[in-house]
Structure formats: C-alpha cells, structure tokens
Amino acid sequence: SNAMRQENGSGGGGRAVNGGPRLRDAADKTPSPSSCEASSEEAHLPHGPLWSGHRTFLSIYRDDDGKLFAHRDSSFHCNNGDDNGIAWLWMVVWCNCFIIMGLSLQGFSLQSLATRHGLNYFDTGSLFSATKATAIVGSLLSHSLMSVIYPSHMMVFGVVLKALAVAALGALHWLPVNETVFMALGATVKSIGGVGLSLYFTATYSLLFYKHQSSYIVPLILSEVAVGIGGLLGPILGFVLIEVWMYPLPYFAVAGCMLLGILIAVALPLDSCVPLEKTLKLSTCSAVAFLADARVLVDLVTLALGGITMAHFDTTLIAHLTSVNVSDPHADYSFAVVFGAYAIGAIIFGVVTAKFEADALVIFIAQLVSCAAFLFVGPVQFIPIPTKLWLTRLGVGLAGFAAAGQFLPVMARVVHSATWRNQSSDLWTITAAVAVSYAASQLGGLAASLFSAYVADVSGPAAACTVLFIIQASWAVARFLVWITECAMHAHASRVS
C-alpha cells in the first residue's frame, strides 16, 4: 500500500538514484541452475496457458515438480535481469484492484448491515479491527512461510482466503437479525480475510522489491495505483449492483473476480522460481537487525500513522456525513474519494521521490497533508471551521492523498535500510522488512478502528478528528527534523567528497 534511498560511501545522508536504488549486492552470485532453471531434460513449452483442456490442475502441478507457475524457459534466471519477468505484474494489478475493491465497498454497505443488526460505531469498528489484528499476525507469519512456500503460491493462497472471506460477508445478508451471532460470524470472516490480505500483500511487495531491485519504482507505483482504482470503483459499482439486485451481489462479483487472478497466474505463467535454499541459509536475527536503527523506527511510526489516516474512515465516515445531513445514496462517492486520491498520491509522490531524490521531503509533505485532512474532515473543535459537505470531502480526499505518501516511499526506506546495512538483498531480509512495515501500517489501522469508533460513539466524530489532528501534527515536527538532518548530512558528505 516506499522510499527510494541510496547511502553514499561516506555514510552520510542518502540520495536516491533516479529510477530507484539497486538493492542487490554486486557480489551476489547467480543462483545455480538447479534452483532457478527448468530442467534441461524437460520439453520446452512456449510461455502461455499450461493446460489444453485434457490436463488437470493437479497434473500440471505434478509435472512442474511443485512449481505450478514456474517458467519453462531454461535461460530464465530469477536473480538476474531486473527487467525480466514483469508479466507477473498483470496478476498484481488485477488482484490489487479487486482485493481493495472488496475492502472499500464494505465502508458503506457493511455499515448499513451492521446498523440493521443493532451495532454501534464501536461494535462495527471491532469488526474492522479483526481484519487489522489478523493481518498483523499474518504479515509476521509470512516471513517464516517464505522459507517453505514459494512466494507465488503464498500470493495465490492469500487471494483465495480473501475471496472466500468477501463472499462470506455477502452471505451475511441472509442472516436473521441477531447482534451476537452477527458479531461472531462477522469477526470470524473478517479475521480470515485479514490473514489472506497480509499473506498476499507481503508476498507481493517482497517479490516486487526482490525481482525489480534496480527499477522497482514504476512497478510499485503501478501496484499502488491499482489499489487506488480498485478502492475508487468498489463503493460506486457496489452501490449500483445493490440497486440492481441486493446486498450480496457486489461481494459475490468481487470475490469471483479475485479468483480469476489464479487463472491469470497460470496463463502467464507466474514465475515462482525463487530458490528456497536462499531463504533457509539466514537466521531470523540477521534479517531483523535493521530494527536497531532509529531511522527505521521513525519510518515504522510513520507507516502506522498512514494506517491511521486510512482506517479512521472505515467506521466514522458515515458519522461525518450524517453530521452534515448527507443521505446514504451519496455516501458511496465519499468512500470512493479516499481511494481515488490515494491513486493520485501514489503517482505524484512516487514520481517526485524518484525524480528529485527527495524521499524525506516527500514524506514530510505527506505528513502535513494528513494534518490538513483531519483539520477539515472533523472539523477540529478548537478552530471555527464550518461543517460543510465540500470541506468534508476535501478532507477525505486529502487523507487518501496523504496516505500514499505515508506508505509508498516509507516502506521502500525500510526495505533499503534493511538491505543496505549488510549489503545483502536476499529474499529473506527483504521479506522481513516488508512484513514489519506492513504490520506497522496495520497496527495503526487497528488502533484507529477502535479509537475513532469509540470516540465517535461517546463525543462525536469531530472529537476523534481533533485528537488525530494533534497526533499527526506532532509527528509532522518529527518528520521535519528528519528531513533537515538528512539534508545536513548530505551537504556534509558532499563537502567531504
């Protein structure tokens, strides 16, 4: 949902290389053919769909020796040629779009269903927090799973879990009105969805950084734009489909589209040629040593605040719209604004970070924009700002825009910090950095889902925005100091050199 930094030889402030830093150690050896190439004895088959009608799913898996999505081209090397193997991004774009579409349409539709069962804002926030809590566990668990499961298999498994969870949420429409049963089933389904969400995104981001180490910026922007577009279309199309039939239809449609991603993976095919032995050689301690760096901890807090920026609206946007007397038919557009602005932010922040080598400045600006978002959405209680629909939607859009800057460049800073320290960019280390980053973002979302919903019940949504504005503004000071410090370090390094 990533900073582009390259430390110079003197150890001073980092500057990004145009197009993104090359993370891999130059001395990294090419993997042996036995671990990354198809056997020379295998018949050469052209890239494309692996089945011709008579082959079964299991026979394909068996014939590929467990590598269901592996390339058959004997000249293919996973660790060489950062520009090779980009076809897998088609699956990433597709799945990112529909996974986030499934999340965004819950903003207005699940809220109405929860209200029908008698749930207040905090109860609904607890349902959303179940996704965040299990996503934290799933992201940390994925670091270990990467040593025994091919990343592409973990991506597919995550998509399947998330699709089943989304379909099950749609089926809750037929549940008789019963608050306790709805809470229990809803929390269970949302928890399963959280695990699938984290497994998919951890594997995706890990592969993205690992396979495109010298040019990850464009694939990363593409991935996050797909997230924004999916979130933009989810509420709008969901509302239209509900009008056509009933509540479950958009959930079933989105779940089905998610599962089509598996067919895309097989048809490409999705190369899972990542050697397992490379991840098994390293210890967990070596993979997480980067957490001792204070700069990494600052970035992780920023990721958590980015999660807060987005998750606040899961349960309180309806309350904000109610305060300005906006009826439900208009709510879907406000939810769409969040993710539409996120897509725009991903493009702008990503391009500016890469072109002008200014990741610290970009993150500081994103932090300021987040402050402005909560200033207008509430509006905050200590400033006499009128409660207007256009101001609320402006604040919502600024929040989505800021969240892109609090996530995309920051995750890359964490990954680069992890790989730069030991000049090692193995999959094990990259996955550790991605897992910790994603867990930090979800932890912030977990806190916001519960806190914002509770305060909205007790004191109204404006009070929640006031508290979050103070938190975001305080951290903006910290990000300003980081930017100034890195500028000074870079200037000193330039004089020395």
From TrEMBL:
Keywords: Membrane, Transmembrane, Transmembrane helix, Transport. It is a multi-pass membrane protein. This is Mfs-type transporter. One of its GO terms (cellular component) is membrane. It comes from the Eukaryota. Residues 1-47 are annotated as: Disordered. It is found in: Membrane. GO terms for molecular function: transmembrane transporter activity. The chain crosses the membrane at residues 86-105, 125-142, 154-175, 181-208, 220-242, 248-268, 288-313, 333-354, 361-382, 394-415, 427-455, 461-482. Gene3D superfamilies: MFS general substrate transporter like domains (1.20.1250.20). InterPro entries: MFS_trans_sf, MFS_Vesicular_Transporter.
